[in-house]
Amino acid sequence: MNKVLSLGIVNNAHTLDPEDTFFLFVNEAIARPRLRVYTFDVADVDLKRGMARVKRITRPVSYKTRRALFHKNEWMKLADFSGLFFKKDPPLDAPFIRFLQYCAKKRIPTVNQSRGILTMGTKAYLKHFQTVIPKTIFVRRVPAALKAIRSLKNCIVKPSDGYGGQGVMHVSYYDGGSFYWHQGGRVRPVTAAHVSRQLQKILTRSRDRTLLVVRYFPSAPVRGDKRVVVLNGKILGSYIRLPDPEAGVCVACNRGAKCYDPTPRDRAIVRAIAPHLKKH
Q1: DSSP of 25-67, one letter per residue?
Q2: Which helix (H) or strand (E) holds 99?
């Protein structure tokens, strides 16, 4: 007889948006006959007791019915879960870090690995993969960011701990000394002082105070962002987030996503980084 498994989805239901993948994930999970699905937030966890106040999900959930997730009505031991799935947007705050450390110490099965999230929780970790990412300069100060922009000419600047397109700016520079701001399909000249102010705003809002200055690909507004899902070094599938052509970048869901078969280049990248990911 097959064992009934218990899946805990760690997520703050109050932060869900209409296009959130949480709903797709949960509704697929509850359709499994021998899987019990629960959700809770880090604020519902009592680490001293090793327990969490949870909500069991037995019916399909949508954005309109999400309020049903707000009311946690039973307690479960964290050790009783067959696995925990972390759905947390960066940056990692102190309570979440303590929870990850607890899961790692108690060897509670998690996706992704607790230690891996603690180690690779921001985009700054991409510095370990310079051979397979676009030309990227990692900076912590405004003067260094301006220097990087002048070097790359046409680039995207983003905070290492941002998500959903927050804090992303598209700026270019030409040798004549002019900066140009790209937004909503429009390009306008701006001063170095203006760019500096915008960079400082992003740095101030960033917890780890690190910016990525990335070389911009003109094909990005059409091509979109490809995401390759890898588990234990193996590709499970891939999809492309379709951006707003006028904005030129993917901000949250924009125009949705399409499934695509991994390309030979995708497979080569996974082969290159999988040993590092499995080790760390």
Answers
A1: HHHHHHTSTTEEEEEE-GGGEETTTTEEEEEEE-S---STTGG
A2: helix 94-106
Three-state DSSP state, 77 = strand
Rama region for 184: left / alpha / beta (φ>0; ψ in -120 to 50; rest)? left
Report how far residue 203's alpha carbon sits from residue 124's, in angstroms, rounded to the nearest whole number: 13
Characterize the bridge pairing of strands 83-86 and 110-111: parallel
What SS3 class is residue 160? coil
Handedness of CA 104, 89, 166, 215 (dihedral sign): positive
- Amino acid in the structure at residue 87: K
- Residue range 142-185, pLDDT digits in tens: 999 999 999 999 999 999 887 777 788 899 998 778 899 988 77
- How buried is 22 (Cβ within 10 angstroms: 0-12 exposed, 13-18 middle, 19+ buried)? buried
Q: What is the pLDDT of residues 201-244, one digit of tens each?
A: 998 888 788 899 999 987 776 777 788 888 888 898 888 877 66
Q: Which of 213, 215, 241, 245 is nearest to 228 (CA)?
A: 241
Structure tokens at 39: 């959700």
Spatial distance between the Cα atoms of 210 and 231, rounded to a whole number of angstroms: 28
Closest by Cα among 273, 277, 208, 256 to 24: 256
